[in-house]
Each structure stands twice: as C-alpha cells, then as structure tokens.
Specification:
Strand 1, helix 1 and strand 2 form a beta-alpha-beta unit. It is elongated, with a radius of gyration of 25 Å. The protein is α/β, with parallel strands linked by helices. It contains ten helices and eight strands.
Length: 307
Amino acid sequence: MQLSIVTTLYRSSSWLKEFYRRAVATAETITTDFEIILVNDGSPDDALDVAIALHDSDKRVVIIDLSRNFGHHKAIMTGLANARGERVFLIDCDLEEQPELLGEFWQKMSERNADVIYGVQRSRKGGFVERVTGGLYYDVFNFLSDTKIIKNMSVVRLMTRRYVDSLIQHREQELVFAGLAALTGYTQEPLEFVKLSRGDTNYDLGKKINMVANSIASFSNKPLIYIFHLGLLLTISSVILVMFYLLRYIWFGNSISGWTSLIVSLWTLGGLILLSLGVIGIYLAKMFVEVKDRPYTIIRSIYRSEA
C-alpha cells in the first residue's frame, strides 16, 4: 500500500464527514492505493457511528476502536502501529490542519528525499494567553531537555515507512509525541502552514500543565540535577552564615533577635523542600507507571476490509 492517512477521533462527529471527503479527494490526486485509519479514542459523541457508516460505504476506511479514552498521543501511536502504507500522513481531523496539505507534504518529501516532513505553524493560533503559554512550553522544554523540538511544531506530518517502524518501537506509558518524533532521528524537514482555529480546544489549563510536567520528566533529568545544586548552595550558604554569626557573637557579643527573619527563613526553606520533593515525586511516579509495562492502549475492535 502506498499511503496511509491516520487521524484520531474525540468529539469529532461534527466534522468527520467533511474531513473524510476532503482527505479522499486529496489522496486520489496522488494515488488510488491508500487507506484512511480512524482511531476512536473513546469519543463520547457519535463519532464511532459516523466512522462505521464511512467504513461500510468505503472499504478504504479502517477503524481502530479503543476500549476507552487513552489520550491523544497514545491514540496516535496506536494508529501508526496499524498503518500499512509506505508513506504515512498523520493529521488531526478537526480541520484546523487542512487535509489538502497532503499534496504539499508529498511534493516536498519527493523533492528533499526526507524521511519526515512535519508541519510548523506560521504564526501560533489562539488568543494572547494561548500564544504566550504555547511559546513558553517550547522554551522550557528545550532549555531543560537535550532533545530539541521546533517551536510551534504541529501534529501534521508525512513519514516514510522506515521512520514509522522506528517511531513505534518507543513503548513509554506516558507519551510525549513531539519529543519521541524528534528523538527517533532520521532526516526531518519543516514545512510552514497556516493553522486555522475553531475557537475551542480539548486541552484545558490543567491538561496543559500536566503535559508540561510530563514532557520535562520524560526527556530530562536536569530538574533533579538543579535540585542537587540548589541543596548544595543552601547548605554552603547556611554553613557560612552560621560561622559568621557565631564569630560575631564570640568577638562582639551580638546575638540575633527578631521573629521575622526566622519565619521568613522557615517558609522559604519549607517551600524549597516541598518543591524539591514534588519534583522527585513526579519522577518516582513515572517510574512507578513504566515498570508495570502495561499496554498504553487496548483495542476493542478493528474494522478493516482485507479485500
């Protein structure tokens, strides 16, 4: 098979038919040998029913129905693991990333002989807060991690078979797709595009904060190193301060008075201790999850025509 188009479904019922129509129209300008893989990530609406209707009318549509909602990145990896095309086009189905981009990605891959052509937003969508927090995510990740990701990188990308086979070898329970995509290596080239905005998102503030913590803990041990350096600095500073006040008391008989400095010191040290324990706890929690070696998704059923 020459091409697989992979997307995930979560609250996707309202735009799934249009996505299918535009994806098929674009794919048919390139090849007739293709499949469209729809991964139902426990969508609470009737997206699965719409997908099954599309499968019944077009056997090129493949449905991977997960047993529950496992998360966007895990659903992506499951879809890639079930793709059979020599080239695999990954895209969200909410139409913020236009299915017609496939033609541009295909052309650039042929011209540059790259293994991955990945999309980069020309300008980040959303309001001021979304743009600022999104930019900070990439800045913090790249500062703390040895694996660098391009700012405003998007999910949409075209990949070769050998790259996909290498990518799906990663079996982490807590997936960070952008990091794994960069970590896998090969020849990767960016392609700028304009991402549209629907005005709403499945990623609320809580999910974004969890994603930042998970991303950093998955790809960097620098926070643990910084905690060690902070503890060492505080220890040295404390020893110097104790010696200073002890010598001042011996020589001049001056003692320290006042509760304000004591309370501030206690609160400061207490906050640093709790922060350090929290960071260590995140790493321990990830180890706890990973050592269980559970599957990161469970497939309830697959709708695929072998004809």
